[in-house]
Amino acid sequence: MDIQIKTLTGGEAGSVTLADEIFGLEPREDILQRMVRYQLAKRQQGTHQSLGRAEIARTGAKLYKQKGTGRARHGSARAPQFRGGGKAHGPVSRSHAHDLPKKVRALALKHALSAKAKSGGLIVVDDLVSSEGKTKAMLSQFAGLGLTNALIIGGAQLNENFARSARNIPNIDVLPVQGINVYDILRRQTLVLSKAAVEALEERFK
Question: What is the dihedral of CA 50, 52, 55, 61, to 10 degrees?
Fold first, then answer.
């Protein structure tokens, strides 16, 4: 498929042919859902933890004698039924990550790119360079391109002025091409790729 290349100022800079095996697939929601679930589970901290009865700092002495009181038999004040005791079956620190085959992850990225191309939410720009590094100037350029909610993917090395001027703009994310991922593509309305990013993606999936 052919797509027009734009400049940051809104002009045209020729066209580029996108590989159909990357940008022309019929998107499958099940694969995208599996990948998003995989990403969100992997980034979940899992640091929630409560103290069990073995971790409570409390006396280990028997509360009262075993027989003759008419009360239930108890051996420790750390038991879960007592106030100040340990929590039974409470949360523990753990990883929430689960496995997903590498081929499925690669396919999910292709389907996410194809979904943006099919919906018209894909823009290719010639270069992501800013001479001033000023957010105000970048806002006017984004307004010319109609970008209010976008993920911008540059080459392997981002232009420092461009990254600095765009990082304070709400709902705009800027990543190098090696950081491209399905979740960020889907959570933003528009995907902006530089020519270098397109070349890197086609080389990656060659």
Answer: 140
Q: Exposed (0-12), middle (13-18) or buried (19+): which is 24, by Cβ within 10 Å?
A: middle
Domain residue ranges in the chain: 2-45+97-204, 50-90
User: Which residues does 4 contact at the CB level (< 8 Å), separation at least 6?
Assistant: 12, 14, 15, 124
CATH class of residue range 2-45+97-204: alpha beta
Using one digit for the tens of pLDDT, what is the confidence trace for 162-199? 999 998 899 999 999 999 999 999 999 999 999 999 99
Amino acid at 122: L
At 39, list the tokens: 């990403």
CB 199 within 8 A of CB 156: no
Q: Which residues contact 27 (CB under 8 A, 6 or more apart)?
A: 111, 112, 114, 115, 118
Read off the pTM.
0.83
Give the DSSP per-residue string, 67-126. Answer: SSSSS-----TTSTTSTTSPPTT------------HHHHHHHHHHHHHHHHHHT-EEEES
Residue 6: pLDDT band with limits 50, 70, 90: confident
The secondary structure element, H or E, covering residue 135 is: helix 135-145
Give the span between the Cα atoms of 62 and 68, in whole angstroms: 15
Q: Yes or no: say if 176 and 153 are a contact pair by the CB < 8 Å rule.
A: yes
